[in-house]
Amino acid sequence: MQNKNKKENDLISIGKSYFEKEDYENAIKTFSKAAKLQPDNIDNWHWLGNSHLRIMQYKQAIKSFSKALELNPNNDLSLSLLALSYFANEQYRKVIKLCLEEIEKEPDSYFYWQLLGKSYYYNNKPKEAIETYLKAIELDSKNPIIWDSIGLIYLENGQNKEALDFFAKAIKLAPKNSQYWFNLGNAYYGDKQYKKAIECYLKSVELEDGKVAKNRRKFMLQLKGFDYDDAKCWLKVGQYYYLDKEYKNVVKTLLKSSKLDGNIFETWYYLGNSYLFLKDYSNAVKSYKKGIKINPNDSSILNNYGVALANLNKIEEAKKYFNKALKINSEYKMAKDNIDNLNSSNIKRLHIESSNEDLLKTVMLDID
Predict the structure, then answer these.
(1) Is residue 107 domain-resident?
(2) Which of 130, 146, 226, 295 has the smallest number of Cβ neighbours within 10 A?
(3) For residue 282, what are the domain limits?
(4) Domain count, the chain
(5) Element (DSSP H or E) covering residue 231
(6) Region 157-185 average pLDDT
(7) Is residue 23 included in any domain, yes or no?
(8) How far apart are CA 41 and CA 70, in angstroms?
(9) Using 50, 70 and 90 to split pLDDT, how confident is the model at 7?
(10) Which of 60, 89, 118 is at the close of a domain?
(11) What is the separation of C-alpha 82 from the centre of its chain, rounded to a whole number of angstroms?
């Protein structure tokens, strides 16, 4: 008898060693032998079930954990792993039944409340899932997964405004989670808050460290109509910022656009304007120069280039560009007024062509 027990103990020890090395196939073989030697030992069945669970052999795991619980119905660890095995095997009704039984015994069990919520969700009972998740939050409000899970349910139901609050809470708890930012972007997108949606999507890409994960996130963005590696997409983001007068964000975004493609006139025009509104006249001049090289016949950029030059005290050169703008458009009142203001040494009253109205029309057409 002693030899039998020693052999069984040796097998359990060897099996655990395999388990710790993540060699689950050999762990299963070893624990199976131990269970045959002494079928009334709970540890044999528990570790056998755990090994099956690790390699997604859910039916075998369920069988082993059930055997362990026959021997000791109060084995909490085996019971929780049985519940997880049922869930992984998509036997949601059994999980629900098990969770409700355990919650009746232990009403403050966070584990069973959150698992119950997940099971309701996958069993197509979103209302019950939300109610259950909210109970889990009462027990532990600092788990971002629950907040995100509720947000996803609202999102799937088209309740975007409600989803926003829950995703925002998840991000507050886990600000570096790329998926939470992407989910928040989806909620903003569904609520037609496109600029905020894009901001969240870009943040989700930024937070991905690995190349494969980052490319996967970029691909998901493409499905939303935004190509991360397309200069025109970055230009569009910059234009959204420009309409809201967030000029520092315009600069950041359009510099990205210019690196991807330096031959887009609008990129340099709105970049120059943003520098001009930020009173960074040197960078405004540099941007306008590149824009003028692409399109020397745009009166707006010539006018604004003149304003930037005048603020750098290059008065005669500024007049030259105001006159060029007038040569292209003789009715351009803004350029005429700017020349008059320079002649009266009134630089502070120079007019900048912001092009907001035309830009707003363009953006609205894109949204439609």
Answers:
(1) no
(2) 295
(3) 231-367
(4) 2
(5) helix 231-243
(6) 96
(7) yes
(8) 11
(9) low
(10) 89
(11) 33
